[in-house]
Amino acid sequence: MSYIAMKGITKIFGDVVANDNINLQVEAGEIHALLGENGAGKSTLVNMLSGIYSPDSGSIFIRDQEVKLTSPRAALELGIGMIHQHFKLVEIMTAQENIMLGQKNGIFLNKKAHAAKIKALSERFQLGVDPDKKVYDMSVGEKQTLEILKVLYRGADILILDEPTAVLTPQETEKLFKIVKKMKEEGCAVIFITHKMNEVMAIADRITVLRKGKTIQTLDKTTTSPKELAELMVGHPLDLSIDRVQVPQGEVTLQVKNINAKNVEGIEVLRNISFHIRSGEILGIAGIAGSGQKELCEAIAGLFPLESGDILFNNESLVGKSPREIITCGITMSFVPEDRLGMGLVASMDIVDNMILKSYQNDKGLFIDRKKAAEKAKKIVKKLDISTPGIHHPIRQLSGGNIQKVLLGRELDSDPKLLITAYPVRGLDINVSYKIYDLINEEKEKGVAILFVGEDLDVLLELCDRIMVLCNGEVTGIIDAAKTTKDELGLMMAGEKKQYLEGTEIV
Amino acid sequence: MFRMQKRGEMPKTKIVAIRILAIILALVAAAFIILLLKLNPVDVYIAMVKGAFGSVYRVKEVIIKTIPLVVTSLGIAIAFKMQFWNIGGEGQICMGAFLASYVALNYPDLPKPLLISIMILASIIGGGLWATVPAYFKAKWRTNETIITLMMNYIALKWIQYLQYGPWKDPKAMGFPKIPHFTDNAILPDLFGVHIGWVFALVLTVLIYIFLNYTKKGFEIAVLGESENTAAYAGINIKRTIITAIFLSGGLCGLTGMIQASALHNTLSVEVSGGVGFTAIITTWLSALKPFVIVIVSLLFAALVQGGSFIQTAFGIPQAAAQLLQGMILFFVLGSEFFIRYKLVWNKSFQSISKKE
Fold first, then answer.
1. Which listed CATH number (3.40.50.300, 3.40.50.80, 3.40.50.970, 3.40.190.10) goes with A250-327+418-423+451-507?
2. B215–A67: do the CB atoms touch at under 8 Å?
3. Do A346 and B223 touch (CB under 8 A)?
4. Average pLDDT of chain A?
5. Which stretches of chain B are DSSP H helices?
6. Cβ burial, residue A63 (10 Å; 0-12/13-18/19+)
7. In chain B, what are the domain boundaries?
């Protein structure tokens, strides 16, 4: 018998067939990956399993019993727990309070009994959740673990994870995988939504590939390869390698000299960092999340105050310049934060208004010229294949990937001399990611100096000319990307310093 | 059981339909109260409309009540657009009226166009500077503007009261605590039978619409309202934008003070603000910060007040009952916002599943 069976599921939104006769079977003690590009129908399918939508036709069987799931609570009572991309936690409460929230209790809370049960669960699945920690003090990874504990506490033995790793650091991802494997050992069924091939190969037992709302195939991991999966996913043969474009390197565009910076709590976040980038060169930055990448990008953009040191752009110091003046120099910074919105875009505004965010001040007079911006918006929507009802649609209503394309489209279109981009492909599917790499290479060919902060070491190794590794706010090495390995980078990311720091000296 | 479900974006026509339905429901609910007073609700409602629009005089009264609401709401809309919760309209109106009155009382013999122009300028500076205090605190030390703007209302009101009972008291008023009347030169002229404030209100509506939607500063205000991080990233000077926007916001409220003192009261008194600073918060919010909608909502609001006071005298019902009616309509319209954002879903199959388990 199969634990979960979804048969002939169809769901239509307006004119869009999100799910077209989809079949999915998941066994107990199995990690089942749902693989597909953005818009393939993965989220719609699991939203029906977790009671958020109901299917237009088709049936759902849980433990061989046909069920109608009409609300998330009904689904949870059948043991189906869903972990959403956006956490549903109360920030000012502790972990335990969040877990107990909404539980049917008597008037008084029996905190001790709850605490004991939470502790037992936490130990059984090796979650390591501190029940008294406030949510606002937690990292993204801890919040996610808490979400998992929350549904386990409510008795879930079927866990659905919707792109859980999109927001995690490699270390947190590894921890999540351990938890998921532990759950599998305990006989739970796990549905894992993703479009990252390496993750699928790392933990899934079986894989169902969806494309354009249809089930393409269910495969065993042992009998397939990342290449086959990627091709099934996009529907045509794929070349998974990234070209390192060879461009003659020019003058030193950016030179960073011994910079130090402290955050608001007075902790040193940048320690004596020095490097340079030439025009036509991509310098990659590797490091575990929170090693100073964000502060470094912001410092160059004039958004983070320095304690000491100097930043030279074409031999002119940027220190003390306002963000506005730095933008005018031709420096563009796009940092894709974990929640994708945040900095760089205005959620309630349309694509046109987001296009002018950094350029409107160049307009003469008091007024804003939206005509040029509208053309630019149309061009970018076409070029990056952004799916939106129109350029005058608030971007908050677009999907995460499309929002990101708006940001990158604008930054790449601004004809920068120095392009700083952090996590540009975070959460994007294969086709779009490769499109972005191509665009970055195009800029490189134009002679732009590029600082690329990445999380995927394979990509860094293939795309960049040199890679600088950060650990704890310090540079642990700058090496030639063609002459290093993932293992070497990994050691440097963990703090091992390379004696010879290639390329820090100015020739 | 019912449960709440968040709606997606709703088409504009449906939002308008929900609001109109809310007003109808408010009228129906209020009808029961009127019935309790042993009156015919339909008669009362017709009388309210007549009371607001039934004669040229009444229409003029409604317009006179609309003017301060529009000007103040426009000011508050600028602040709200930046998510700066300016609750200090009352105080800014008072301080605008104060500076304008200072000019009017000290230079009574200046030629009319000059005197009025200086009074307008003075009122904008008065209200603007009064609002700049909390804006500066917010820009510099991230203080909470809601509390400071609110508290500063009372300081301003008491200041006017002090002037009225103390240094500015009219010696010719035989001990009665009032400030001397302005000279004719300091009083706004009429145009088509209503003081010229209505022209100000309409011109300002167009100007503020253009300001918020088509100027760089307006764009900066909107970006800053959404996220300070994004604003810094876009190279916007945050402190300067906060102070400029709030100076404008307070300046418009101050201008209201000048219009009311000059055209309506012909002097300065503690009644100069008359609660407009608070009422304008409601009209601004109901208008979704849109300048042209502000004019319509303010007009309807003024009509409601005018019609309400008319039925008091026409039917001999207590003032409280008329205000109850106003409150009822407000309650329903504000309550309808809930239904624009959420819908209630009747959830029966959920229970059947729970039982099966």
1. 3.40.50.300
2. no
3. yes
4. 83
5. 12-36, 41-53, 56-81, 89-106, 112-141, 145-165, 197-214, 216-226, 228-233, 238-259, 276-286, 291-315, 319-341, 349-356
6. middle
7. 66-295
Q: Copy the structure tokens of residue B304.
A: 């409601």
SS3 state at A388: coil
CA of A462 to nearest chain B CA: how many angstroms apart? 30
Q: What is the DSSP string of B280-329?
A: HHHHHHHTTT-HHHHHHHHHHHHHHHHHHHHHHHHH---HHHHHHHHHHH
B63 to chain A, closest Cα gap in Å: 32
Joined together, the tokens standing for residue B26 give: 């408010």
Q: Determine whether the interchain pair A349/B357 forms a contact, defined as Cβ–Cβ distance below 8 Å.
A: no
Handedness of CA B69, B71, B72, B74 (dihedral sign): positive
Per the listing, tokens 């008491």 go with B158
Cβ-Cβ contacts under 8 Å, B353 against chain A: 67-70, 74, 77-78
Of A70, A73, A342, which has the smallest distance from its Cβ to B229's Cβ? A342
pLDDT, tens digit, 9 for 90 and up, residues B280-327: 998 898 888 999 999 999 998 899 888 888 888 888 887 777 778 778
Alpha carbon distance A257, A50 (integer Å): 53
- Cα–Cα distances in angstroms (integers) from residue B120 to residues A43, B254, B265, in the given order: 59, 9, 16
Sign of CA dihedral A387, A389, A394, A396: negative
How far is residue A1's CA from residue A61's CA, in Å, rounded to a whole number?
11
Buried b (16+ CB within 10 A) or exposed e, A259-292: bbbbeeeeeebbbebbbbbbbbbbbbbbbbbebb
Q: How many Å lie between the alpha carbon of B232 and the closest alpha carbon of chain A?
A: 7
Query: How do the domains of chain A map onto residue ranges?
Result: 4-234, 250-327+418-423+451-507, 331-414
Determine phi and psi for A426, rounding to 5 degrees: -50, 120
Q: Are A288 and A473 in contact (CB under 8 A)?
A: no
Nearest to A259 by CA among A292, A219, A281, A211: A292
In this prediction, residue B108 carries a pLDDT of 87
Chain A CB within 8 Å of residue B354 CB: yes
Q: Which residue has the tokens 């039917």?
A: B315
Quickly name the fold that domain A4-234 has: Rossmann fold (3.40.50)
Which among A344, A347, A356 is the nearest to B233, CB-wise?
A344
- Whether B223 and chain A come into contact, CB under 8 Å, resolves to yes
> What spatial distance separates the first Cα and last Cα of chain B, rounded to whole Å?
18
Shortest distance between the Cα of A229 and any Cα of chain B, in A, equals: 35
C-beta atoms surrounding B36 within 10 Å: 9
3-state secondary structure of B177: coil
Q: Please judge whether A68 and B347 are an interchain contact, meaning their C-beta atoms are less than 8 angstroms apart.
A: no
B353, B355, B356: best mutation site toward chain A, by most A Cβ within 10 Å? B353
Between B346 and A333, the more confident residue is: A333
**Quick check: do A4-234 and A250-327+418-423+451-507 share a fold?**
yes
Name the range with the highest mean pLDDT among A54-58, A140-144, B161-165, B180-184. B161-165
Q: Report the run of H or E that residue A184 belongs to, with start and end.
A: helix A170-185
Give yes or no for a contact between B273 and B65, defined as CB atoms under 8 angstroms apart.
no
Structure tokens of A417? 């001399």
Helix A400-413 × helix A430-445 angle, to 10°: 10
pLDDT at position B1 is 57
The mean per-residue pLDDT over the stretch B106-126 comes to 93
Residue among B230, B240, B352, B356 with most chain A CBs within 10 A, to mutate: B230
Query: Contact A324/B237, CB-based, under 8 Å?
Result: yes
B347 lies within 8 A of chain A by CB: yes
